[in-house]
Specification:
The protein is an alpha+beta fold. It has one domain: Alpha-Beta Complex (Nucleoside Triphosphate Pyrophosphohydrolase). Helices cover 21% and strands 26% of the residues. It contains three helices and seven strands, in the order ββββαβββαα. The strands form two sheets. A four-stranded mixed β-sheet has the order 4-1-6-5, with helices on both faces. The chain has a three-stranded antiparallel β-sheet with strand order 3-2-7. The protein is globular and about 40 Å long. The protein starts with 7 loop residues before the first strand and ends with a helix. It binds 8-OXO-2'-deoxyguanosine-5'-triphosphate. The site of 8-OXO-2'-deoxyguanosine-5'-triphosphate has 14 residues, from β1, β4 and β6. InterPro entries: MutT-like (IPR047127), Nudix_hydrolase (IPR020476), NUDIX_hydrolase-like_dom_sf (IPR015797), NUDIX_hydrolase_dom (IPR000086). GO terms for molecular function: 8-oxo-7,8-dihydrodeoxyguanosine triphosphate pyrophosphatase activity; 8-oxo-7,8-dihydroguanosine triphosphate pyrophosphatase activity; 8-oxo-dGDP phosphatase activity; 8-oxo-GDP phosphatase activity; metal ion binding. It comes from Novosphingobium nitrogenifigens DSM 19370. This is 8-oxo-dGTP diphosphatase.
Length: 149
């Protein structure tokens, strides 16, 4: 339908290492959610599926290569859920965030300019400041990391 407003679809990945840690990225200070820790990923482009977007985003953001077959859907979060409170200053819009887990990739993850990467251990996770949608997803990410790291 013309003018129909759809939710913004975002795909993200929890890369896990052999120590059961999860790679997270601190957003540049001058962007939406600046300074918060989140999963690498980004918006789906028109006509793009979530796995294709994931492969593209990790190449662009981290300079690594993942195969769709190594990515496992872990869950999703949407900001129309009760209890999700937007970060002050962030635009009000419906977002659906799809999280995949992945324990195999090629290359060494490198942060894009202005961003910071951290391999996060489960005990540190609680103290990280994250966007509201990432809080429930982080639990799924660490369960996956424990089982697959
Ligand atoms: N990548 C990512 N985005 C998240 C997470 N949690 C969360 O609320 N978001 C939101 C922030 C943004 O509204 C949206 C993704 O935006 P983005 O700026 O990363 O997307 P993009 O890479 O396509 O960036 P751009 O082309 O707009 O610069 O999803 C998360 O864990 N990872």
């Amino acid at each position: 339908m013309a003018g129909e407003q759809r939710a913004l679809m975002v795909v993200a990945v929890a890369l896990v290492d052999h120590a059961g840690r999860v790679l997270m990225q601190r957003r540049p200070a001058d962007r939406e959610h600046g300074g918060l820790w989140e999963f690498p990923g980004g918006k789906l482009e028109p006509g793009e599926g979530p796995l294709a977007a994931l492969v593209r985003e990790v190449d662009e953001e981290l300079s690594i290569e993942v195969s769709p077959g190594d990515c496992v859907p872990l869950g999703f979060a949407a900001n129309d859920a009760p209890g999700i409170v937007a970060v002050a200053g962030a635009p009000r819009r419906d977002v659906v965030l799809l999280l995949y887990g992945c324990a195999r990739w090629r290359g060494e993850p490198r942060a894009e300019e202005g961003a910071e990467l951290g391999w996060i251990a489960p005990d540190v996770c609680e103290s990280l400041e994250m966007p509201p949608l990432d809080v429930p997803l982080a639990r799924l990410a660490f369960e996956y990391a424990q089982a697959n790291g």
